[in-house]
Amino acid sequence: MRQKSILTEARQIERAVTLINLGARLQV
């Protein structure tokens, strides 16, 4: 059960990183 929360957190972080990368690409 603990693993599931870690997986969800990792997925959220991945999504945040993707959004940051997209934002940086748009700025450039």
Walk me through the structure.
The radius of gyration is 12 Å and the shape is rod-shaped. It has one domain. 93% of the residues lie in helices and 0% in strands. It is built from one helix and no strands. The protein has one helix spanning 2-27. The mean pLDDT is 91. The protein is mainly α.
Task: Briefly summarize what is shown.
Keywords: Activator, Bacterial flagellum biogenesis, Cytoplasm, DNA-binding, Metal-binding, Transcription, Transcription regulation, Zinc. With 28 residues, the chain is mainly alpha-helical.
Helix and strand layout, with pairings?
Blueprint: H1 2-27
Which structural class fits the helix and strand makeup?
Answer: mainly alpha
The mean pLDDT is 91
Radius of gyration: 12 Å
Q: Please tally the β strands and state the result.
A: 0
Largest sheet descriptor: none
Q: What is the N-to-C succession of helices and strands?
A: H
**Helix content percent band:** over 70%
- First-last Cα distance: 41 Å
Share of residues in strands: under 5%
Tally the helices.
1
List unreliable stretches of 5+ residues.
none
Global morphology: rod-shaped
What is the count of distinct domains? Answer: 1
Keywords:
single chain, 28 residues, mainly alpha, 93% helix, rod-shaped, bacterial flagellum biogenesis
